[in-house]
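Good day; I would like, with your permission, to put a structural problem before you. What I wish to show you is a protein chain and, alongside it, a tokenised description of its three-dimensional fold. Please examine both parts with care and let me know of anything in them that strikes you as inconsistent. Thank you for your consideration; the sequence and its tokens are set out here:

***
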Amino acid sequence: MNDSRPAGATGSGPAQTGPADWLTLPDVAERLDVTISKVHQMIRERELIAVRRDGIRRVPVELVANATVRKHLPGVLTLLRDAGYDDDEMLHWLYEPDDTLPGTPAEALGGDRAREVKRRAQALGF
């Protein structure tokens, strides 16, 4: 285990913080105007994160901006995976409130603080 993981992130249960709303994979496909197979490929290739909630794989709505995935999200997911985070831990990290951003890393990915989020994710690997 990596010592730089957020407190309480064990991967054994739902994150304590999280998105306000979720999209099912078919909803993601519709929003992105791609096939459901393409959504599964995006998840496999770490362009998008999906976790099971109530037995259904879901994607945080904030991570799918209009008809695209947040620009820096794939890079951040790769950096977190390289730092040893599993999907639940990545989700927790993305939605952990951070007054220095302000908000959460997931919210910051939609604005001018996206590169800062990427730098912080990269620092977790060291």
